[in-house]
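Q&A log
Question type: sequence-to-structure
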Amino acid sequence: MSNSKSSNSELAALPRHRHVVSAGEGGQRLDQVLSRRPEVVSREMARRLIDGGWVSVNQCACKPAARVQAADLIEFAVPAAEAAGVLPQDGPLDVLYEDGDLIVINKPAGLSVHPGPGHPDGTLVNRLLHHCHDLSGIGGVLRPGIVHRLDKDTSGVLVAAKHDLAHQGLAVQFKAHTVHRRYLAITVGVPPRRQGTIDLPLARARSHRLRRGVEPRGKRAVTHYTVLEPLGRFALLELRLETGRTHQIRAHLAARDWPVLGDPLYGGRRYRGLALTDALHTLLGGMQRQALHAAELGFVHPILGTAQMFAAPLPADMQTVLDALRAAC
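Response status: OK
Response body:
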């Protein structure tokens, strides 16, 4: 999608979408209201459309932060994505499923999903472009095909779209929180109850630009957990996401003082004075990433309309730590 300003001729050539602001949406930001439309898959995309001149309110141009009122008419067009600025690069892919609409892969830990500061290439997107030759352009030039993300050092199941219609269909499900997402984590600390829910709002931490913290001003975030196996002062947890905020599981578990093992950003390297054998301490200290794995992903196929469920086994590094903790109990 181009970031340049649209021309009248370009707008005339594209289908126009219309949205009448409801009473409940009155007073909200334009980009916030626009991002809920099924044609607009994210707040970031809404801002790009507005800044690019593809959006009008009552036939007038507005800024993303403009407040709309009930009965305002929002008109917008979605231009074709510009050619991706990401080069295809060969690399291994653990493909769990693939058809003409989407691809599901088991992402290894240590692989960034898309280019960004510090990793301009060598990412999952680079490998997907080499493998698929084409991906949906809705995600923008640096994120073709990417409907959702996993942190660089989180392993597990991830889906990417091959064309815009599939991307839109998947994005609607993620927005509606109807996608099944099951994670496994090894934590430092054991929840006092076998099952529970963490319902705490998250926002960018004021003291650290990369961290998310519990903030009253933040967006609602809900994580359901089950203790699958207590392991002394550690635990194997199953986690199910009701919402999908950045670093949600890691920030929520840290807020409850059960940080994910091996997570340097949220305190997972602290063993809080636990008495460990030298061998076990060496093993746990050698965990080079957060012990978090996206074990299952389920959704409705955006084109076929069929229920899909995919699973990825626990990776070797987490299995090794889990076996050692079991042996030490």
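Response note: Helices lie at 8-13, 30-34, 43-51, 124-132, 164-175, 248-255, 278-285, 316-328.
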